[in-house]
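Exercise: predict the fold of this chain.
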Amino acid sequence: MSLTGTSSIRETLREALIQCRQATLKQFDGIDNEAFCNQSHPEFSPAGWHLGHIGFTEELWLLRHLAGASPNRPIARSRQFSRLYAADGLPKAERVNLPSLTETCRYLQEIREDVLAYLEVAPLEEQQRLWWFIVQHESQHSETIALVLQQQNLANLPFSQPGTVSSLECDSVTVPAGEFEMGNDGVEAMDNERLPHRVFVEEFQIDRYLVTCSQYRRFIAAGGYENPQYWSKAGWRWVCENDISQPLYWTDNEAFGNYPVCGVSAYEANAYAKFVGKRLPTEAEWEKAARWNPQTGLSQAYPWGGEFPDASRCNHHQFNRGTTSVNAYPEGVSPVGCWDMLGNVWEWTTTTFDGYDGFEFFPYKGYSQVYFDGEHFVLRGGSWVTRPWALRGSFRNWYHPHVRQIFAGFRLCV
């Protein structure tokens, strides 16, 4: 996302804002009011709330904060909307009484018209980082919209149409010991990606592919969900209290055998790792395997280099309407030989979420800093839903270890 010239930046931002919004609105095609307002899981707000919150956040930071202008359109200036869509406003359970989809779209459109008008005169040399934050904020909430809608239709599994099932050589690659640069200080970097820093990582082996459904089926068949020896105390308690017996998004159809296991918690990922005598990677190990190029000794933005993500390199942006085989993207292989390091499914790590040295919140503490509590674990890599603006080797996601509604899987280390 390296740009030169204010006019180029302005046009690129405008295109990103428009393309991102078109993809967001497409998610609501055919959605009725019940699905729009339904809180399908107690830990997530309704899909309709996330749509309104996207508009509220755009108006708050780009119009009020940067332009210094209060909204002058009839819907956008409503205090009712501001209270409803603020992240620190109503509790999640009270976010079900929402305006209609039509009214919410008008709300977003009013804000967007003013935002695009301001973009034409905004001093982007000073503001560019916040504009990219807003694009990525919408990208992240659009992914939450996808998983919220998925909870309402669990019978329709998030797998794309299977192709020919071929055998995989499920081997590991060796990543040699040494330092690499972790993190990112580009204009697109979120606050928790900063500051770049040198990290020494001991030699390790990491699986070439994500753990597949065929592999995970052996754990289920061997009674993995019935044997406490594979589970942490917290994980076993979670299994028993919630009657867990398989991943949330699961099929016994062998046609999907080479697809990554999806819809697993960190507890499940760690239990499977113990079952096969391996472990999850640390966050630093994952990033080195994804970004570090042994030929140049440098970290690159994406596993394949510096080119912006597209449909030929990884499964993202809902191009395939679900996960794909773990060996479907040869053009996206990382320099050390790992496949699917970006897209398809998020990958759990063993690292608790925290700020890097020199961390400074941006644009507000509630984005990252409030989650530095030792209870959230880092996920890396993005999923089949993740937008390209929030997809890179340094991007960090985080959830509690019991959460499995997200499109998450894992790969293992030795």
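Check your answer against the key: The radius of gyration is 21 Å.
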